[in-house]
Amino acid sequence: MPTQTPACATPDSRTPTVPADVIRTDVLIVGAGPVGLFAAFQAGVLGLKCELIDVLDRAGGQCTELYPEKPIYDIPAVPGCLAQDLVDRLLEQCAPFAFPMHFNERANGLAEVPPEPHGTAGHEHPHRLLVTTDTGKRFDVAAVLICAGAGAFAPQRVALPEAAALEDHHLHYAVRDTARFAGKRVVVAGGGDSALDWALALRKTAARVTLLHRREGFRAADGTVAEMRAAVAAGEMDFVVGMLGALKTEGGSLAGVDIRTREDTISLPADELVALYGLVSEPGPIAQWDLDMRAGRIMVDTTTYETSRRGIFAAGDIAFYPNKQKLILSGFHEAALALRRAYHYAFPEKALVHVHTSNNATLKEKLTHA
Ligand SMILES: Cc1cc2nc3c(=O)[nH]c(=O)nc-3n(C[C@H](O)[C@H](O)[C@H](O)COP(=O)(O)OP(=O)(O)OC[C@H]3O[C@@H](n4cnc5c(N)ncnc54)[C@H](O)[C@@H]3O)c2cc1C
After folding, report:
1. In what helix (H) or strand (E) does residue 213 lie, and over which residues does it extend?
2. 20 to 30 Å CA-CA from 304: which of 43, 75, 142, 206?
3. How far apart are CA 138 and CA 24, in angstroms?
4. Which atom of ligand 1 is nearest to the CA of 106?
């Protein structure tokens, strides 16, 4: 899914002065996993404007990254669906509100927005927060809802001394541009679907592809494994059982890899190494936001799902309270209540009147004809 940039970052009537490059909205949702996506829908239902950011290049969180083809049976009124189908349905559900989603953006910094010097007499200055991302985007918001799951996903890196210097040049944790591998000797390390898929794809244009995995068995779809074995049998690519022992460099470039097999160590000339060992989650910069945390998770008040800081809420796996369950349905409930409280930060002078979606003609129209 492409990175989307908001079509409009123009201040609204509640905005006295906002620099042009700052995106102003009611709520920033950090994390477009299942809980963040449902939160976007809820924000729309409540009449809040929101934007979502995710450090990954697509929505779905754990469902998409870790188990897209696993069935889920415990979503209310959905007797069973694949994890990716659930994400697709959540995307469809929040689509009528057309909230911008910013991918490849990691929430980094958080600051309180200083009060306006010329506030209106008799009106309390609205509480605003400024969130910055690793690419420099800035969001001026009334509330932040953190749906960051287990933290920001990052690739599991090669733990060899030469790896860091080669990263992004000759050592890759994702394939973003297949053309750069054309005519090269490529080693693809890993035993999951991504490793097999890329080894099979790159063999068509690379000088030679070697798939490297620590054992004979794979964590990949049976059809993909069969396709890979057929390609090896046909001499179109190689498969080696072993582990990376060392990376050899020449003039800052990769020259080859040493592979430790069960019997001995073999040296393989290589120009590019693609390591697809899966993703690990890291607490990331949110851990520095001065929030009350317990074992890497954010403590919340279970009446509002507000954290220890005003205007900052947490829902889903990242939220912690006694008896918290890491289940999608728990996250849905937490996000719904968090946004009801967030409404008061966005509209301090308005009361939130509860109306069922079916009794709100405008909303009904929007959701029916989406
Ligand atoms: C194998 C497996 C099977 C499961 N089966 C079920 C099941 O059957 N039923 C069920 O209810 N639950 C199941 N779960 C648990 C369920 O997947 C989680 O509860 C759910 O994904 C939590 O959703 P979330 O949106 O809170 O977080 P996540 O799905 O973890 O999404 C968080 C998102 O936030 C992003 N993010 C994190 N930090 C930042 C940052 N600083 N800036 C920008 N983006 C950030 C991440 O990239 C990620 O996309 C399962 C989990 C696993 C691993």
Report:
1. strand 208-213
2. 75
3. 9
4. 42
pLDDT tens digits along 225-258 = 999 999 999 999 999 999 999 999 999 999 999 9
Task: Tell which wins on pLDDT, 365 or 346.
Answer: 346
Would you say 272 and 254 are in contact if contact means Cβ atoms under 8 Å apart? yes
- Sign of torsion, CA 71 77 79 85? negative
In ligand 1, which atom is closest to the CA atom of 37? Answer: 25
Give the DSSP letter of residue 286: G
Could you tell me if the CB of 326 is within 6 A of ligand 1?
yes
Q: What is the pLDDT of residues 308-352, one digit of tens each?
A: 999 999 999 999 999 999 999 999 999 999 999 999 999 999 988
Q: How far is the CA of 322 from the centre of ligand 1 (A)?
A: 19
Residues 6+ apart with CB under 8 A from 3: 57, 102, 103, 104, 105
Would the CA dihedral through 319, 305, 50, 361 be positive or negative? positive
Kindly state if the Cβ of 37 falls inside 6 Å of ligand 1: no
Mutate to test the pocket of ligand 1, among 53, 58, 62 (most ligand atoms within 8 A of CB): 62
Which of 328, 330, 333 has most ligand 1 atoms within 8 Å of its beta carbon, as the pocket-test mutant?
Answer: 328
> Where do the structural domains in the chain lie, given as residue ranges?
22-153+280-368, 157-277
pLDDT at residue 152, rounded to an integer: 77
How are strands ordered across the β-sheet holding 319-320? Answer: 293-294, 297-299, 319-320
> Which architecture characterizes domain 157-277 according to CATH?
3-Layer(bba) Sandwich (3.50)
Cα–Cα distance for residue pair 250/70, rounded to 1 Å:
44
Tell me which long-range contacts 258-263 makes (C-beta under 8 A, separation of at least 24): 259/212
Name the amino acid, one letter, at 322: P
pLDDT, one tens digit per residue, over 70-122 is 899 999 999 999 999 999 999 999 999 999 999 999 999 999 988 766 555 54
